[in-house]
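Follow-up to my post from last week.
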Amino acid sequence: MSAPSQEVLPWIVTGVGLWLPGVADHRAWRAGARGCPQDEAPPPEGALLDRRTRRRSSGLCRALADAFADAALSADVPLASVSSVFGSSLGEVSTMLTVLEQLTRGEDLSPMHFATSVHNTASGMVSISNVNRGFTTALSADFDTVGAALCEASGLLAAHGEPVVVVCADERSPERFVAEEFAFDMLAAAIVLEPKQPGRPALARIGVPSLRTEAPRVPVAPLSPRLARNPQVGLVDLVGAILAGSWGDVALDRGLGHGWGVRVESPDS
Amino acid sequence: MPSAPIPITGYSVCNALGPDRRAVAEGLLAARSGLGPAPFPLPFPAMVGAMGFPLPELASAYGPWANRATRIAYQLVLGLQAELERARARWQPDRIGLVLGTSTSGAEATEEAFRHYLATGELPSAYDFRKQHTFGALADVVRRLCGLRGPTWVVSTTCTSSAKPFGSAARLIQAGILDAVVVGGVDTLCSMTLHGFQALGALSPTVCRPFSRERKGITIGEGGAMVLLERTGEGPALLEAVGESSDAYHISAPHPEGLGARLAMQRALANAGCAASQVDHVNAHGTGTHLNDAAEGRAIEEVLGRDVPVVSTKGYTGHTLGGAGAIECALALICLEEQFVPASLGVEPIDPALRISVPATGRPARIRRVLSNSFAFGGSNVSLLLRCA
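User reply:
Got it. Predicted complex:
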């Protein structure tokens, strides 16, 4: 895609968020944590979700909620009105497979499992918990999900000029369906984008995502293979680049997508 | 300030009424229901909106991705071929995007693979989870079938899945990021959704009867639609505005007072700079459950009044879930082109608690604008405002 204003970098980044096994938030990342095997880490808390909603939520939903909260609270955007774009390749795949197993074994389906097996479960749960009646969506584009989510956010920013939280995650790949060499562990990342405004503190300036150019890429953080294979790792790389002040073109996948990238620069540039 | 309308320069549709625009329009104008018995056994009484006609086979290069969802999508691409060819000649291929909606994607193929797994301990050798099941695979196949190189993704917000892409496309075109976007959606009949809605107590044992006093729930259908939106161009209608909202109430039940539905309709009208009195017809979400129809009826009355004709087309096609937003956009386009308000099948006797006008018979009418509603799990609400070109 050739966007109209790549030279200008129309948006600013005002908050970032992370949840990886052993990395509870972006402050832990900034302190040097880079994750551990999922089985050795405490699960995500989902503290943003109200108690009733949290009880019904999956690990994926809680990881998305944690990364969302980390980014939105650090940007100090209003939780009751901020727009959000939720991205995931496989979505609530473990809940869906539980429903499928119940169905195939001829058991009665759990209504709660069915209702929370859908792709927009986290998007709905976060809006319910924050009593947010604004815009939210849930999308998927396999290894291009991060590029797609930032593209969707660019449209929202251009149309409404209000902050947008982009949050992407995939839970651990389903063992029976994904071969070991492609298997991945759960991670989640988030970023808050806003139009430039005088006096608003920012972490970076950022452009509209585009298909990869031949320009040199910002180096990515070392992660374990099981984290690096997660389809949403590109958003971790983007957050990592912003936190490290590594400016330039950031790849939004690690070679398995169609090659989306985005340019980030210093907020003072 | 209202945003500029986006030209709709072509569309294709298929569902239980037939394989193309002509067959679907004929069914709609003739007040013919496409609902009937399920094509596979179910342990409870239910009707469905199945597509009983043959679907085209994908070329062998697409073999690993072939499933019912991609074949329905191929049927739609074939119906939009001339318009796609013109758009590809007009715009750079990387500035034509694709935003599809689905809730099931390849779930029907995964159900079959899972049955095989439980019987044998192994998945079928031809089954590939990434190519058969995932949303991204569906999007990628359709992008290739359409010959596009622009941004491509799937929105999956259950029953608003294929309505929300209209909002995405409008924003991207208005921002100058893209010149054209193919939007649409596809969903297939599968056991998981039928059993799931049965578990929720939302499935009707007979054909659905939206807005009727005797309604007993939804009837699930399958199908899809694709719509080409371009920065400039001529076509049957304009996408005037999109309104989106969240209920922020419950994961699977609508806000009882239709709060989110009301907000979506109001936002569509505000984005268009259009008065409520300028809406000539509503294609309601109208699923046929007590809660949904009551909430939507209340919201429509509050926003648009009691006189505008409100029709649910679920009695023709069933609730096509992730395909519903795009299919009902196509049905609304047919109404605009034919200047016709269809019958809301099964409505009589109308629920006396609803204070809206739901026609039991179709009639010619002067229609300039149609509002098409889609509401979903997670409290997701979308209203599309369409008007004659």
